[in-house]
Amino acid sequence: MADSIAIHVEDLGVRFRRNRRGSRSLKDLFGGAARRTRPGEFWALRNVSFDVRNGEAIGVVGRNGQGKSTLLKLVAGVLLPDEGTVDVRGGVAPLIEITGGFVGDLTVRENVKLTAGLHGMSRADIERRFDDIIAFAEIADFVDMPYKHLSNGMKVRLAFSVVSQLEEPILLVDEVLAVGDKAFRDKCYRRIDELLAEGRTLFFVSHNEKDLRRFCTRGLYLDKGRVKLDAGIGDVLSAYNADYVV
Question: Which of 2, 98, 161, 204 is the most exposed place for a label (fewest CB within 10 A)?
Fold first, then answer.
């Protein structure tokens, strides 16, 4: 059923430049040449198609540089495709480049309100959830300190705490569970388990096979910017390991 689809991707393609010499003119962008690969450009993703159903947990695997994070950013709306379509049918909670968007000179309190508001949380919801966000991040003693003075670990904890409080139906996760100490990672795992139990949709990029098997039932194996295999997570990991793990 069409209404059970959370993410629909069809014939998706996106190009990047290797250097400035490959940059395109306005004439190229609005003319027929815009769809051709010009000198200095390469396709990061090409001919990528798949659907993600509501409540499904998808793990994306592949070597570095194969288009995994690029795909996540396209789904998040951070990037726009050069070809094809990305249809996301619901709001997203993006756990990608997790500490981005915070302002160093603002306090922790101000950053929580700003970031949560930019993600669409109402002022009333921010006030209602503020104490839970700070408690989860374990930074209650630092709420009125400038954000730039937090340790890297504190910044990651705060960012995860804010985004995981969003009520969006689709959760996008890119390797953020690889950071932080074990105690906090375990807390993150439990929070993601709770979100999945609520019926959220998970689109999860990771190199951690244990995490992929824990959270995901299905996998996408990206190789050279294309989907090499779309199958159960066990089959996808077996195929990937057979190709690259000695």
Answer: 2
